[in-house]
Amino acid sequence: MQTDRYLEPHQARQRAPTTFEDLLGDAIERAFAEGAHTLPELVACLNRTGPSSENGQPWTESGFQALMARLGN
Amino acid sequence: MNTITFTKDPVDALLKDGLKNLWYPICPSGFVGERPISLRRLGKKIALWRDAAGTLHALEDHCPHRGAPLSQGMVLGDRLACPYHGVEVRCDGTVTKVPGSPGCKLEGTRAALSFHVQEAWGAIFLYNSDVNIDTPPPMTMPEELNSPEYSHFLCYAEWKGDYRYALDNVMDPMHGTFLHKQSHSMAEGESTATFQIRTTDTGFVFEKTGQRGVNFDWTEWGSTGVHWMRLEIPYPKSGGPGGNFAIVGCATPVDGNTTAVFFWRCRKVSSWQRDTWRFLYRNRLEARHWAVLEQDRIMLEQMEPDANQHENLYQHDIGVVRLRRHLRNLAEEQLEAAAAKAGNPA
Ligand code: FES
Ligand SMILES: [Fe+2]
């Protein structure tokens, strides 16, 4: 949007999300909407329906936490 | 009452540029880098710069010699050298050097208006004093910004129109049910409600009776060295654990027809839930929050500047009425104090 004043929709991120981050964001929201609110439930849900983890392996609780710490800190 | 007499009202003239002797957020921290910048805020032009250690300083962007913009000049640590005739002004307002006329009586006087500044929560706050003071009073913000149990992001925007329309908008929870009906978080709740006002230690809460945590159901006004507003809106289930999200907001007048708005979006989350919320906020939620805020901006910008002179208020609007009256009282007190100081009681 071209304006003479500051109207920036994205102020919290430095770059646009990657395709992987897009898919993961959708998958996390889907899991939350289904009521998966604990870490084991969320990880199980991602393994069932979500994208696989970055290295192509199944999600683990520690792997998910480490990735969120990196992308969300 | 027409617009012309309204703007000549001294109370309104004071309110238009913002009450004095308060902290105001003026811009995100990142707006000021190595080079000095000039910002119009609170009816003034303000020069902001950082010294080599990164410490922020602020002076009125008006050289005490003949009024050239100091922000166009050179940074000399905690002072600026005016580009016009080289006068050097320190961050406390003192003229330290007049190169064109060494020893002249301007040297050593505190002839420029200086401002205290502090950085917190991603923003630069400025103390709006109209005289030079050595120590400003402290400011605090609500626990959503101070407590480590919360995580938050600042959303900053510049809206056309008087800042008081932005204040009114936040003091008007009922608009959530209508204006934001098509939004990710405000589809719920009754479309009629009765409101009440509850006094707090620092201000008041304007809230729906018998409905909490369904929609945008209450707003709090607070004064803690800075004027802020706070509200909560429930997230949909897809927002995950962590309960409602809270917004702490401030509106800072720019020039009478522009407003700098600050909305800190906060959530009580920790560990992986915190990180996950922050990931979702960056990649999914921020855009949706922005779309809601744009509905507010577009509505307010389409209102006539004197819309608030032709109103028919009803029960939902008692928060707006209370806040306007409160601000007018504060303005009257400031004018009386200024008159008493000048020796001619109002
Ligand atoms: S106007 Fe700044 S030095 Fe003359
Ligand atoms: Fe709104």
Report what the structure shows.
The complex is a heterodimer of chains A (73) and B (346). Chain A is an all-alpha fold. Chain A contains 3 helices and no strands. Chain A has helices at 19-33, 39-49, 61-72. Chain B is built from 7 helices and 18 strands. The model of chain B has no long low-confidence stretch (mean pLDDT 93). The two termini of chain B are 23 Å apart. The A-B interface holds A 5-13, 17, 21-22, 25-26, 28-30, 32-33, 35, 37, 39, 64-65, 68-69, 71-73 and B 28, 153-158, 160, 236-241, 258, 271-272, 274-284, 286-287, 290, 297. Residues 63, 65-66, 68, 82, 84-87 of chain B line the site of FE2/S2 (inorganic) cluster.
Q: What is the element layout, followed by pairings?
A:
The complex is a heterodimer of chains A (73) and B (346).
Chain A: H1 19-33, H2 39-49, H3 61-72
Helix pairs in contact in A: 1-2
Chain B: H1 3-8, H2 10-17, E1 23-28, E2 37-41, E3 44-50, E4 56-60, E5 74-76, E6 79-81, E7 88-90, E8 95-97, E9 114-115, E10 117-120, E11 123-127, H3 143-146, E12 150-160, H4 163-170, H5 175-178, E13 195-199, E14 203-208, E15 218-223, E16 227-233, E17 245-253, E18 258-268, H6 271-301, H7 318-341
Antiparallel strand pairs in B: 1-11, 2-3, 3-4, 4-9, 5-6, 6-7, 7-8, 10-11, 12-18, 13-14, 14-15, 15-16, 16-17, 17-18
Helix pairs in contact in B: 2-7, 4-7
The structure holds FE2/S2 (inorganic) cluster and fe (ii) ion.
